[in-house]
Amino acid sequence: MTNILADALPREISRVTAKKERWQGYMRDHNMGAGMQLSINIMQAEIENAVAALASGDVTEMLAAHEALKGYNDDD
Hints:
Number of helices: 3
Structural class: mainly alpha
Number of strands: 0
Helix content: over 70%
């Protein structure tokens, strides 16, 4: 299966969005502080950047956004 950027970037957006939502739940359920909120805000900014890159169709921006999102692991 060929993994093209136009398919891979939306998958990464969805994956990191799910992680952000899990972290929001952890923060809410465990009364975590400002450090976690900062991390959530950074994730949100990366997600918004990726959505904008996808909408623009600029391959360079899409590649950069994809790489940024790939940096988030799922080992919460």
